[in-house]
Each structure stands twice: as C-alpha cells, then as structure tokens.
Amino acid sequence: MKLGMRAHDFGRFEPSDLAKKLHEAGFETCQLALTKAISTVTAFSDINLLVLENVRRSFSDNNVEIGVLGCYVEIGHENKDSRLAEVKKFLTGLEHAKELGVRIAGTETTHFPASLDIKREPAYENLRDSVLRMVEAAEKLDVNIGIETVADHTLNSALLTRRLLDEVSSKKLKVILDPVNLILTQQDIDNQDEIFKNFLNIIGTSICALHVKDIVFNNGEKLWKNIGQGDIHYKPIFKWLQENNNDLPILREHVKPSSCETDVHAIRKLMTV
Questions:
Q1: Cα 40 from Cα 233, distance rounded (Å)
Q2: pLDDT class for 119, splitting at 50, 70, 90?
Q3: What is the DSSP string of 8-65?
C-alpha cells in the first residue's frame, strides 16, 4: 500500500510545485486529474507531449507516484452521440496515462437520478457498450481502467459491478472502491459493515485503488470530517485489503491543507492494522 491523495485538493499549480507540496505533506502517490490540478491545463486540448513530460519528470523528481490518472467522463449517457464523445475523451486519457507511465486511468460512470423515468437496465447496457470500447484501447495500450461504483450512479452496486466485470471479461478492467460513495443515508451508515463486507467479497482483487474520506450525517446531509473523526468504519476494510489485496494506492479525498497532518497520521495507522 502507498499513501496518497487527490492532487487537486491542494489547488492548481505548476507540476513541480504541486509534486513538491504533496511530497512535503507526506504523500507517496496521488490521483492526478490534469485539467483540475495543473495550472496551465484547463482542457484536454492544452495537453501535449511537453506538458506530459514535465508532469512525469516533476513527480518523479519529487518521489511522488501518479497512482491513478483521473479522467472522469459521462459514459452512461442516454444520448449515444454524447456518450461516444465522452468515450473518446477517455481514450485520450488512456493515451496520457501510457505516456506518463501510469497504470490506472480512473472514472466514475454517470449520475442516475431516481426522480427521472430512466430504467436501470438500458442505462447499464449503454455503460457496458462504453466500457467495451474503452477496454479495447486499454488492452492495446496496456493501461488499466479503474471504474468507480457510486450508489447514485449507473454503476450503483457490488452485484452490478460484478456483472460488468464478468460481461466485459478483461484483465484491464478494475474497480476503484470509495466506501463513502456506497453510502446514501443514515440507514446505510447503520448497515455499513455489511455493505462494505459484501463489496469486498464480491469484487475482491479487482479493486485497484481505495478512496478514503470520512463523513457524518446531519439532518440527512453528508458533512465531511477528517479521517477517523466521522462514522465510516475503515479498520475492517484495511484489514481485508492487507490480507487479500494490498498492492494498491490509498488515496485521501477532500484533503484540507490545514489539517492534512491529521489525515496522514490516521491513514498510516489504518495501513498497519
């Protein structure tokens, strides 16, 4: 396991300045979204080989690995043209990951609003079509796809994620586990041990990265907390990963620079359970 964070939580900087800040804060790896974290990059069209080489060299010189290249796209769109445009964007992200020497390009799926008359199965079939196109490129480039399960997105459960893994049937398709994103309500908090155990048992070694954040609910609203100061039970998750799947980046999300040291200490303690 390597301790890391979502790089743009520190803000937008030149690559060398950003990598230095991460290293000085005690992080060994990161999830990097170029358009959110690099000050000279606001769109994919700003990314070229010179930019990528500067990023690669800056992070290497500061001993910070890029564990996941964040490339978040809407691959479950109902509209085919819009969906395929998002897929094309992700394929470009895979090429960036290859150039940077990053093993994983990560994405979520698409928000699935329960209030609208959208059926889960057609939405899933659109998602699967997108992922099949993405996997074809990933296999050629030898880069993994990390897809994140989110309770209010198209890919919303362990069972549906397992189905996607089985139907796509590619070693290049992996899963990013974010325990908080499996939680929608206080009732889910009450049942979290079963939710997380179920996810780990069903998805297992297909998990390629762990997102770490902490919450409490207040009048139905999620409030962000430092790690260990909220209601998420991380010890059983870390224990399972240590015993079954421990070669992965541990990525703190929603870092606040002012309390970063608290999170680093808490996560390192969890990494030794």
A1: 39
A2: confident
A3: GGG--B-HHHHHHHHHHTT-SEEEE-HHHHBTT-SSGGG--HHHHHHHHHHHHHTT-E
Task: Look up tokens 């897929």; give the residue.
Answer: 87
Query: What's the pTM?
Result: 0.96
Q: Report d(CA 17, CA 23) in Å as an integer.
A: 10
Tokens representing 140 are 């050629």
- Per-residue CA distances from 227 to 18, 69, 149, 214, 232 (Å): 22, 23, 21, 5, 9
DSSP three-state, residue 127: helix
**pLDDT tens-digit series, residues 129-146:** 999 999 999 999 999 999
263: CB partners within 8 A, 6+ apart = 226, 227, 252, 255
**Between helices 158-168 and 192-203, what is the axis angle to 10°?**
10
Number of other residues whose CB lies within 10 A of the CB of residue 182? 19
3-state secondary structure of 161: helix
Position 112 scores a pLDDT of: 85
